[in-house]
Structures are given as structure tokens and as C-alpha cells.
Write a structure and sequence with these properties.
Chain A has 255 residues and is of the alpha+beta class. In chain A, 56% of the residues lie in helices and 11% in strands. Chain B starts with a strand and ends with a strand. Classes of the chains: A alpha+beta (255), B alpha+beta (93).
Amino acid sequence: MDASVSPPGRASSDVDVLVAPDELGPWLSLLAQHGWRPIDRFETGSSFEHSQTFHHDVWGHLDVHRRVPGIGADPAVAFRQLWDRRTEAVVAGCAIPVPEPAAQALILCLHAARSFGSPRAAQDLAFAWTSATPARQSEILAWVTALDAQLGWAAVTGHLDDFRDDPAYRLWVVASRGGTRLEEWRARIAVAPSASAKLRTAARAVLVNTDSLAINLGRQPTTPEVLAALGRRARIALWETVSGLVQRLRGEGRG
Amino acid sequence: MTAELRWVLAEDVAVAEDAGYTYLAALPDGPIVVLDTVAGVILQIALDVPADKVTAEVAAAYGKVPTEVDAAVSECLSGLERARLLRRVGARG
């Protein structure tokens, strides 16, 4: 990232790549040809379903993004806007196309906004936005408008409740303020674009995320391990439902 | 006009330096080769001067006579050449 965007000494353990939607298929094929192995799927990587993580024995981890959470514009349109105003960063002697600094700052802030409880996210926000020059802040706000990023930006600035009617509101509430797994899945179902997508998401909520389980185990899980994880999920879901009900009843009792 | 040989980085090689180490990586599949300080100096000199002057320059850098460093320099550079990170090209001098 540009020195004006990222705090000095900020390190990262992976590389984030944004791919144009119409080039995603060929891109993923190319990764497979060069020894990159997927360790999750877009659907299981995060509640925003925006990226897929790959591992390479030499290079380590790579996150392929099909969109940036918080950018409301169509992913292809957003990519084109970022690409048209791209700049270059030199990494290990190689010129890499990257978004221009103000767009980098917006992406970093949107990432920070959905990183509930992360000390690094707070540092990123302070550096990239709060301490930015007025000129840079204006540039960032111009990108917010250009990329239709008002909802994500509201999470950055603490005005998320202005977007209560937005389908993605709950997802951002959970991502930026924390929440239970149950609340997260409710939010994911709410944001799914169609009835069938909502059904598929609801079905996945019940099932074990075998990608995540494999990462934790360091290998593919066995059937008994998947069943055990399913039991744990059911117990957690039950507990969250009961404790949510108790909290609601207590609230009603006080009111 | 004579053709003089020079060492150059191979195509699609990434180079980074950190904490006295030099990292060379062949793109897109690797491997990554890590050079210690001395090997890093040899590489830097090899990229700066004609190939037949590298040994003398390295020797001068370390206050040695060329015969003392010749084997190490040759081993280092030929190893990088075998790894397809470095290659010799002819340049008109």
C-alpha cells in the first residue's frame, strides 16, 4: 500500500488481489496451473462471500477478491473505475498495478470497518482517514460516491443506523459491532439476492463449514469429525437462541 | 568493437533486500533463493561490471587477491545461472 495510506511498519501475511469479474474463471484456472491450492471457497470464506484463499508452497497465502465488501457498485463497473485510475507499486523490483492512493484508503477503511475488535483496524482507520489531509479526505469521499460505498462508509463513520432499511444492514452490524453466529446467518440470509439464494444460504447455515474445519485441523476432516462439529454447531445455535430469548424477555420485563 | 559478456537478471525475476539478505525469486512458480551478505555483494557487483571483471571487483571489495575469491564467485554466479535467475549476455563495448 501507498505510504500515505498504511501506517508505517504495517505488515501482512498474505496478498490481496482484486480480479475483474469476467476474468475470474480464467484467473482461477491459471492459479491452479501454477500450484495454488484453494483452502476455502467464496461461499465459505467470510460472511460477505467476497474472497477465496489459496495457498502455494513457495509463496504462501493469496486472497482472490471478486468484489470489495462495502462497494455497492456492480463489481465489474467498480473494477473498471479502479482500473482506469490505477497506479503502480514496485514490489521486489516488479511493477504491480494497484488502486490509486485515495481508493486504497477507502478499501482499507472499509476493511477496518468490518473487522470488529481488531486493534489494527482502529490504527488503519486513524491513519488512513482520521489523520488524512483534508484534500485526501475529499478524494476518499469522492470514491465513496463513485463506487456507491455509502453503506460501508456509514460503518466506517459510525452512521450505520441511517441504513436500517438496506438488505446488507444487519451484515454490517455484525461485522462492525460483533454478533452471534445466529445473527450473522440471519444477516446473510437477509442479504441473499433471491428467494432461492436465501434458501441455499439457510441450508448452509445448518451445515458444517468443512473448509474452515480442514484449516483448523490442518487436513481434510473425517466423517466422525464433521458429525461432531455439526453437534457443536447445533448446541451453540440452541444456546444463542435461548440466551437471545432470555435477553429479550429481560428487556421486555424492564420496559 | 568487441562483444563483452555481462551478467543480467533473467526475465521475470523478483529481487528484494531485507536485513542484509537478498531474495531472488523466479516468477511465477519460484523457487525463492536467499543470498547472504557476501553472495548479495557478489550479485550486485556482477550486475554492475563486465563478467570478466567480477572476480577482481569482489576481491577489491574484500581486500583480497582475486585467486582467493575466484572459486566462491564462480560457484555463486554459476549456481544462480543454473537456477535460471541470472544469465550472461553479450554487449557491445
